[in-house]
Structures are given as C-alpha cells and as structure tokens.
Amino acid sequence: MFAEVLIASRTNALDKLFTYHVPEKLCLTEGFRVKIPFGAGNKITEGYVISIKENSGISIAPEKIKEIFSVIDSYPIFTKETLSLAKWMSKKYYCRLSDCLRTIAPCGAVFPKSGIRQKKLEKTAKIARINPDVNISIEMLSEKQQRVFEFVSSNISVYVKDIKEMLQISDSVIKTLAKKEIILIQEEEVLRSVLDGNEKTSPPELTGLQKKAIFEISQNSEKKPVLICG
C-alpha cells in the first residue's frame, strides 16, 4: 500500500504530493500526520497523508520507494471532508494546498516555516453522570438540585457547561451534588474540529459585474494571478 504525502512546508516547489510506501505495521487513512524521510539526506520531515492507494502509480520500482517512518498522532487531523475542502480551495483560488490546509487546520496545529510544531489538539470538558452506587430520595434535594438530578438522569452523560446554560444555574449547585457523590464529574478530552457547529450555507447572489469578473478569471487557462481592482 502507498500513500500520497504533502510536505509540511510553505515552499512552492514542495507544494505537491510525494509517494511513500506504507509499512504493514502502520494503520493509515487520509488526514494522518506522519514523519517521513525526505531529500537526498533522508531528513526526517513532517507531512500529511492526502490519499491512500494500492499501487504507487509512478515508474520507480516499489522497493526503491521510501517508507513512512512513523505516525505522529493517534488519529487523523483532517477528515475526508476537510481534505476535499482544501483541494477545492487550492483549485478555486489558485493557491498552495499547504496554505489551504493551514487555514482549516484544527486549533493547536501550528505551522512554522520549517514545518509543523505539534501542540495539543484536544481540549478538556467536564462531564456529569449519575452515580449508580448512590440511592437517594429526590425529595431530600433542593429545587435546583432536583432539576439537575432529573436532567442528568435523562442522559447517559452531559457536559457541565450545558447543564449550567440550559438550566440557568450556578456552579455551586453542581458542586454540592458532586460533593455528596450523587453525580460524578469527570474531565474528558474532546477533539477540536473546524467543522463543529458550522452549518452549510448557500452561495450569495452575484451581481452582473461579479459574474463577468468570475467568468473572465475562470478563462485564465494558465492559472496565473489576476489583478482585481475594486
């Protein structure tokens, strides 16, 4: 199996896909960040897996194709949808694919000039659950505590933030229930996503002049930059 990898670089000459062999020990899909040997000196470099394919599709003998060294993260940073979006942006706006990926990268992924510096890509969130080992009469709770108890009971787990927002209560009510061990509060890691909470929108209606400008730009077969005034 082979992978097409984009080097994490802002250099125009490197804004293309390089084919690497995927070792059997690695389980890869599109969107993973990997370490690869690159260049004549086989310098360990970071890159992104853009696609996976069965055959290399190049004229080099399979045994001479370099192997991916390792996987950096335990999950893909980009989904198939975000990769497709980046490819569309690159084609639509005549810009580097690496720049498009940089634009839609998850929060925490930083792109220095020499590559990508890894930062924490998760955030933590407090989760509330009912303690199954505690038996309590709901009448013993205050009115606000009862509302929290019933709300959490109706869900397997719920974010503490959502409890406060939906029930309009303070931290003290939740902390009291946690202190009595009626509910359990745990912190869990939540993967950030650039698509979370974003709804699809319809394209805006263009004016006649805007349609004319887009048509003329689309006829630019050489894909050279176009100067736009106004």
Question: Would you give an account of this structure?
Answer:
This protein has 230 residues and is an alpha+beta fold. The protein is 27% helix and 22% strand. The protein is built from 6 helices and 8 strands, in the order βββββααβαβααβα. It has helices spanning 80-93, 97-104, 143-153, 160-167, 171-179, 208-218, and strands spanning 2-7, 17-21, 33-38, 43-53, 70-71, 122-130, 158-159, 183-191. A 5-stranded antiparallel β-sheet has the order 2-1-4-3-5, with no helix packed on it. It has a 3-stranded antiparallel β-sheet with strand order 7-6-8. α1 crosses α2 (97-104) and α3 (143-153) packs across α5 (171-179). The longest helix is centred in the middle third of the chain and has 14 residues, at 80-93. The radius of gyration is 25 Å and the shape is flat. The chain starts with a strand and ends in a 12-residue tail after the last helix. Residues 110-121 have low confidence and may be disordered.
Annotation keywords:
five-stranded antiparallel sheet, 27% helix, 230 residues, three-stranded antiparallel sheet, alpha+beta
User: What would the principal axes of the Cα set say about the shape?
Assistant: flat
Give the count of helical stretches: 6
Poorly predicted ranges: 110-121
Would you list the SSEs in sequence order as H and E?
Answer: EEEEEHHEHEHHEH
Oligomeric state: single chain
- Fraction in beta strands: 15-25%
Radius of gyration: 25 Å
Largest sheet: 5 strands, antiparallel
Protein structure class:
alpha+beta
Proportion of residues in helical segments: 25-40%
How are strands sequenced across the largest beta sheet? 2-1-4-3-5
Straight-line N-to-C gap: 49 Å
Number of strands: 8
Give the integer mean of the pLDDT values: 81
